[in-house]
Amino acid sequence: MPPPSSTPPSRPPAGPLTVAALAVAVLAISSSAPLIAYAAAPALAIAFWRNAFAATVLAPVVTAARRPELSRLGRRGVLACALAGVALAAHFATWVPSAKLTTIAASTALVATQPVWQGLIALAQGRRLPRLVWVGIGVAVAGAAAATGTDFAASGRAFAGDLLALAGGVMAALYTALGERARATTSTTTYTAICYGTCAVLLLAVCLVGGVPLHRYPATTWLAIAALTVGPQLLGHSMFNYALHKVAATTVSVLILLEVPGSALIGWLWLGQVPRLGQVPGLALILAGVVVVVVGARGAGAERRLPVERQLPAEV
Description:
By secondary structure, the chain is mainly α. It has one domain (16-300). Helices cover 74% and strands 0% of the residues. It contains 13 helices and no strands. It has helices spanning 16-30, 32-38, 43-65, 67-101, 104-111, 114-124, 131-148, 156-183, 188-210, 219-243, 249-255, 259-271, 280-300. Helix 1 crosses helix 12 and helix 2 (32-38) packs across helix 12. It is globular, with a radius of gyration of 19 Å. The chain starts with 15 loop residues before the first helix and ends in a 16-residue tail after the last helix.
C-alpha cells in the first residue's frame, strides 16, 4: 500500500448532476424498507430477485453497447467489479437474517455503523480523513441508533443476530469501498451489471441451500419486487455507484444514513406508521451529521485519492 500523498485528490468536482444523482439515490433507497415490509416474500428471496432483475435489464445494454469496454477491462477489471458483488451479497446475507434473530431496532442500528467501517477502510488504504468528517460520522451514527431505539437483548439468539447485523455494516462498507475502486476505471453500467449479476448468483445459491421459496407469491408481491428493482436497486444503488466517481466512499456511506428518516417518512405517508416522538431527535442528528461530513469533506479536501492508471468518464 503506497503512503498517502500530500497533494489533494484528483477526483473530479461534484457538479449539479452528481448532486442530483445522490438526491435520487437517497429517495430511492428510502423506499426499500417500506417495500420489503409490504412484500409477502422472504427477505433473502426479495434480495435475490431485485439483483437478478436488475442484472437482466443491464446485461443486454452492456453486451450491445459496452463490449469494447469489457474487452479493455480484462480479467482484473471484471474481478474488481465481481468482488464488489460478493461484498454486496454478503451484506444482504448477513443483515437480512439478523432482523429475524434480534430486534429490528438493534439490527438497523448496528448496520448503520457502516460509516465507521468506511472510515477505517479509508485509513487502511492510506488516506487521511479530516477531523470534522469523523465528528460528523459519530453524530450521524449516534442519530441512527437513537432514531431506531436500539434495544439489545441478552439472549444467545439475539447476540447472534447482533453479530450478523454488525457484519452487515462491515460488508456494506466493503462493498462501497470496492465499488469506489472499480468505478475509477469502469462505467456505471458495466460495473453495476457485473456487480449485481455476481450478487444475484451468490444469493441464489444461499436461497437454494437454505430452502428459501423463490416463487408462488401474490401479484402484489411481484409488483413490490419490481418496484424494488426499479427504485432502490437501479436508481438507488446505481446512482450511488455513479456518484462514487466524484464523491468519496466515506461521504457516500454517511449519505446512505439518510435512508433512516426517508424510510420513516415513506412508511408514515404510505403504510400509516407514524414515527414515535422519541425518534425525532435521532433523525435530526442524522441530518446534522450528514451536513457536518459534507462540509468537512469539502473544506479539507476529503480523502486522498486512490492511485489509478486512468480515469473513465462517469457515464451511466
